[in-house]
């Protein structure tokens, strides 16, 4: 199921979902509100992962002077979630168990027009 | 064995510049990080990671494995050691699969080291590490001189967590929470004569309440047997609802990983790996009566 408030975001979600190895996509505002998704299951529940990890990454990057944050991968149970930070939101990509997070991250960053697409 | 040689071994991996170990509260237990990083910086990171791991585990009811954070100028890989986090700092292009070969062995060694000298783990920062933890934390004396730990979590709670994890997993298989609670309540009623303490396990709002158990009872193993009987009864009902193969697969999907991570508690409760096959076993007489039928 998909939901998106505008065509641009809808297109971005669709493009990310089409990447090899991606099984679901969710875009969440920094306050945890799901802006768009193309994911099976509960988008709020899935989106919370992206917000949790995105917030933690930003803070840890500041603490260790490692910024800018590029992407994060977290394994939860059998799931692997890739998190990418955007200006006002976090993008969560749910990966197939055989997907390479680094390859998907590189392609996703390129698709989002962000630097570091060669990760 | 101390933690320092293990951290040094991790730091020998190409692309790694330092590593440190946090406990489950995020406090830094041992560190071999570049001197540029203060204890306060590492403690802040440890707390954030501990909160993140706990938050994700609570939200998803699943074990959080590794967290890999990639930044423009570095990379932090946090590996969940169950009792805390092993944090590894490296270059952005760090070869994580290669790192894992060393880090996974290191985690095993860290667990051994913690078991061999649990008290030493508390004072490990006094060892001659690059970051003098005990001296570098004037603002947080509780970490530099650890206060007595809160009472350890009773092993019996591991069984309740397992039951809750099983319920959550079954919900993902399409069985409603209310139906699962009906099954549990049915099983608990059947077991009431033998295990009366179970009667308050399920709260009116449908949660499992660890505080309902008589933790002051000296018979922890007897309590464990009661919870095992509930799990056994639940499994028996699942076989009827889902079919044997699906029920067994669903159960194993939760149990196998959980047991690996909580083996010590299972052993301390006298259960060992006994619950592995419980989904395949007939019900004992304590469950006597017909099975529940859901609407």
Write the layout of secondary structure elements.
The complex is a heterodimer of chains A (119) and B (295).
Chain A: E1 2-3, H1 7-17, E2 22-29, E3 34-38, H2 43-63, E4 69-76, E5 79-85, E6 89-95, H3 101-111
Antiparallel strand pairs in A: 1-3, 2-3, 2-6, 4-5, 5-6
Chain B: H1 4-11, E1 16-23, E2 28-32, H2 39-60, E3 64-71, E4 75-80, E5 84-90, H3 96-116, H4 118-123, H5 141-144, H6 156-172, H7 177-191, H8 220-242, H9 244-261, H10 263-268
Antiparallel strand pairs in B: 1-2, 1-5, 3-4, 4-5
Helix pairs in contact in B: 1-3, 6-8, 6-9, 7-8, 8-9
Structural description of this entry:
The complex is a heterodimer of chains A (119) and B (295). By secondary structure, chain A is α+β, with helices and mostly antiparallel strands. Helix content of chain A is 36%, strand content 31%. A six-stranded antiparallel β-sheet of chain A has the order 1-3-2-6-5-4, sandwiched between helices. Chain B has 295 residues and is an alpha+beta fold. Chain B folds into two domains: 4-144, 2-Layer Sandwich (Beta-Lactamase), CATH 3.30.450; 156-287, no CATH class. Chain B contains ten helices and five strands. Chain B is elongated. The N and C termini of chain B lie far apart (58 Å). Residues 119-150 of chain B have low confidence and may be disordered. Chains A and B meet through helix 2 and strand 4 of A and helix 2 and strand 3 of B. Strand 4 of chain A pairs antiparallel with strand 3 of chain B.
């Amino acid at each position: 199921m998909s939901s998106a408030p505008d065509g641009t975001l809808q297109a971005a979600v669709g493009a990310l979902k089409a990447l090899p190895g991606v099984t679901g996509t969710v875009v969440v505002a920094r306050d945890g509100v799901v802006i768009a998704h193309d994911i099976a299951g509960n988008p709020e529940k899935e989106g919370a992962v992206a917000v949790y990890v995105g917030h933690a990454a930003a803070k840890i990057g500041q603490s260790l002077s490692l910024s800018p944050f590029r992407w994060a991968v977290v394994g939860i149970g059998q799931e692997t979630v890739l998190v990418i930070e955007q200006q006002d939101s976090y993008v969560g990509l749910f990966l197939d168990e055989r997907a390479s997070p680094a390859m998907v991250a590189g392609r996703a960053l390129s698709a989002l027009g962000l630097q570091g697409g060669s990760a | 064995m101390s933690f320092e040689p293990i951290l040094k071994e991790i730091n020998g991996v190409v692309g790694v510049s330092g590593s440190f170990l946090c406990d489950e509260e995020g406090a830094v237990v041992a560190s071999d990080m570049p001197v540029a990083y203060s204890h306060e910086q590492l403690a802040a990171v440890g707390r954030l990671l501990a909160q993140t791991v706990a938050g994700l585990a609570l939200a998803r009811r699943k074990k959080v494995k590794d967290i890999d954070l990639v930044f423009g100028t570095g990379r932090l890989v946090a590996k969940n050691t169950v009792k805390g986090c092993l944090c590894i700092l490296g270059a952005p292009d760090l070869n994580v699969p290669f790192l894992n070969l060393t880090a996974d062995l290191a985690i095993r060694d860290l667990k051994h080291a913690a078991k061999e000298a649990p008290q030493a783990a508390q004072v490990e920062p006094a060892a001659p590490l690059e970051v003098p933890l005990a001296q570098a934390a004037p603002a947080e004396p509780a970490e530099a001189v650890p206060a007595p730990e809160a009472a350890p979590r009773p092993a019996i709670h591991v069984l309740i967590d397992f039951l809750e994890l099983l319920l959550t997993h079954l919900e993902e298989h399409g069985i409603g929470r209310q139906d699962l609670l009906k099954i549990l309540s049915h099983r608990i009623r059947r077991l009431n004569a033998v295990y009366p303490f179970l009667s308050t396990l399920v709260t009116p709002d449908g949660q499992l309440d660890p505080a309902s158990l008589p933790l002051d009872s000296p018979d922890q193993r007897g309590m464990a047997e009661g919870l095992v009987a509930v799990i056994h009864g639940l499994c028996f009902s699942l076989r009827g609802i889902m079919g044997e193969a699906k029920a067994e697969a669903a159960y194993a999907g939760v149990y196998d990983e959980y047991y690996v991570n909580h083996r010590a508690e299972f052993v301390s409760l006298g259960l060992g790996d006994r619950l592995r096959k419980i989904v395949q076993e007939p019900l004992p007489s304590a469950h006597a009566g017909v099975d529940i039928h859901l609407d």
